[in-house]
């Protein structure tokens, strides 16, 4: 599928403001903006295996489209939600366990890039990844 492969972060757009809205402290925001995130995605039908490797952690996530699962962000924020496929775009809605607020995320291929968009409390951020 189009998402399959290994992707390395190339640049961010408004990422620090997004992390601030999420309540992440200044030091973690500075580090997070330069995390050298690499995402490896493997899709098999409606099942996905995603490995996220950064300067801070390496995790592997398995999920099925439309099925809720628990997920922790690099700063420890715990979420529950699900990914769905809308056209050629992966769309997620996650709810924070600590305050009940919603984080929306999308992943889509635009040209030769994987674009990951986040929306939280009206603050939108994008991270652009190049195929490795």
Would you give an account of this structure?
It is a single chain. The chain has 132 residues and is mainly beta. 11% of the residues lie in helices and 58% in strands. It has helices spanning 15-21, 26-32; strands at 5-13, 38-44, 47-53, 58-64, 69-72, 78-86, 89-96, 102-110, 113-120, 123-131. A ten-stranded antiparallel beta sheet has the order 4-3-2-1-10-9-8-7-6-5. The radius of gyration is 14 Å and the shape is globular. The mean pLDDT is 95.
Offer a concise description of the structure.
By secondary structure, the chain is mainly beta. It has helices at 15-21, 26-32, and strands at residues 5-13, 38-44, 47-53, 58-64, 69-72, 78-86, 89-96, 102-110, 113-120, 123-131.
Write the layout of secondary structure elements.
Blueprint: E1 5-13, H1 15-21, H2 26-32, E2 38-44, E3 47-53, E4 58-64, E5 69-72, E6 78-86, E7 89-96, E8 102-110, E9 113-120, E10 123-131
Antiparallel strand pairs: 1-2, 1-10, 2-3, 3-4, 5-6, 6-7, 7-8, 8-9, 9-10
């Amino acid at each position: 599928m189009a998402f399959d492969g290994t992707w390395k972060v190339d640049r961010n757009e408004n990422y620090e403001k997004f992390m601030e809205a999420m309540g992440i402290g200044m030091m973690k925001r500075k580090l997070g903006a330069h995390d050298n995130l690499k995402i490896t995605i493997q899709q098999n039908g409606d099942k996905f295996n995603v490995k996220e490797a950064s300067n801070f952690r390496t995790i592997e996530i398995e999920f099925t489209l439309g099925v809720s699962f628990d997920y922790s962000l690099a700063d420890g924020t715990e979420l529950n939600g699900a990914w769905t496929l809308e056209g050629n775009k992966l769309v997620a809605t996650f709810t924070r366990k600590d305050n009940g607020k919603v984080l929306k995320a999308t992943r889509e291929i635009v040209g030769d890039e994987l674009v990951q968009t986040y929306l939280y409390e009206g603050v939108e951020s994008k991270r652009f990844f190049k195929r490795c």
